C-alpha cells in the first residue's frame, strides 16, 4: 500500500511547497512575494550578537514571529521591544495587517502585552507544568 520514511531537507521543502500551492488555490495571495524575510539582529560595537528576531511575512500580509531572543546580559534595556518594533514597522510598510507569535509562561508574555499583543489561545501543560501562549496584534 504505502510506507512512511524520514524526510530529507528536499522532502521537507517539497511538502511545504505542496501545502503552499494548495493554500493559494483556496485563498489567493495578497502580496507579490509569497514570503518576505523581516529578521533583524542587534550587534554590539565589538561585533557580539546581542539579540535578534526571526520573522517573515507570508502570502496574505500576515507576519509570523518564529523567535525573539536577547542575550541575558543585554536584557532590560529595551532591546526586545526595539527589535519587535522594527519588524512591525517594516511589516506595515510592506502592507502587513497582522502579526502573530507564541511564547511560554517563562518567556516574554509581558513584553508582548505591553506592545499591544493579545492572547488568543493557550496550550496548557506544554511543557509539563507550563503554558504556551499564542498571541496576535493587528497592524
TrEMBL record:
N-acetyltransferase domain residues are: 2-139
Decide whether keyword Ribosomal protein is in the record.
no
Alphabetically sorted, this entry's keywords are: Acyltransferase, Transferase
Query: Which molecular function GO terms apply here?
Result: acyltransferase activity, transferring groups other than amino-acyl groups
Kindly list any coiled-coil regions of this protein. none
Tell me any Pfam family this protein matches: Acetyltransf_1
Q: Which PANTHER family match?
A: N-ALPHA-ACETYLTRANSFERASE, N-ALPHA-ACETYLTRANSFERASE 50
This protein is called what?
A: GNAT family N-acetyltransferase
Q: Which organism is it from?
A: Sporofaciens musculi
Amino acid at each position: 500500500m504505502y510506507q512512511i520514511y524520514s524526510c530529507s531537507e528536499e522532502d521537507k521543502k517539497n511538502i511545504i511547497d505542496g501545502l503552499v500551492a494548495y493554500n493559494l488555490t483556496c485563498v489567493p495571495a495578497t502580496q507579490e512575494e509569497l514570503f518576505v524575510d523581516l529578521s533583524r539582529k542587534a550587534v554590539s560595537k565589538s561585533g557580539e550578537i546581542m539579540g535578534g528576531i526571526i520573522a517573515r511575512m507570508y502570502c496574505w500580509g500576515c507576519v509570523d514571529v518564529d523567535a525573539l531572543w536577547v542575550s541575558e546580559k543585554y536584557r532590560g534595556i529595551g532591546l526586545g521591544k526595539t527589535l519587535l518594533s522594527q519588524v512591525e514597522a517594516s511589516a506595515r510598510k510592506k502592507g502587513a495587517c497582522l502579526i502573530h507569535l507564541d511564547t511560554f509562561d517563562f518567556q516574554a508574555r509581558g513584553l508582548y502585552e505591553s506592545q499591544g499583543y493579545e492572547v488568543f489561545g493557550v496550550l496548557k501543560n506544554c511543557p509539563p507544568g507550563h503554558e504556551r501562549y499564542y498571541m496576535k496584534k493587528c497592524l
